[in-house]
Design goal:
seven-stranded antiparallel β-sheet, 98 residues, 13% helix, 7 strands
Length: 98
């Protein structure tokens, strides 16, 4: 499956990057998620996308760090597998997250 989503955040790319890359801050932008990690890897347990379904759990290896510009999650263990790239694009006074 290949999915693409993008949204605007009223904050500069550097601040958005800092929020996304820190496992301790994931709950602030992913309601209901629980995360732990050491900077190179993050373990996540989060609400499922379907109502009343059990939570999903996966481990992502963080790679391709581009401070203020993006990074890649390699989903190697758990219920999700594959690659998720976060790409940050400065736009006016904020950031478009792809």
């Amino acid at each position: 499956m290949n999915t693409t989503d993008e949204f605007f955040i009223d904050a500069p790319p550097e601040r958005v990057y800092d929020e996304l890359i820190d496992a301790a801050r994931i709950r602030a932008w992913w309601p209901g998620a629980r995360a732990s990690g050491n900077g190179a890897q993050v373990e996540i347990r989060a609400p499922n996308f379907r109502r009343l379904a059990r939570p999903i759990a996966f481990t992502a290896r963080i790679d391709g760090l581009r401070p203020g510009a993006g990074f890649t999650w390699w989903l190697e263990r758990g219920e999700l597998r594959g690659r998720a790239e976060w790409w940050l694009e400065g736009f006016k006074a904020g950031t478009i997250v792809h």
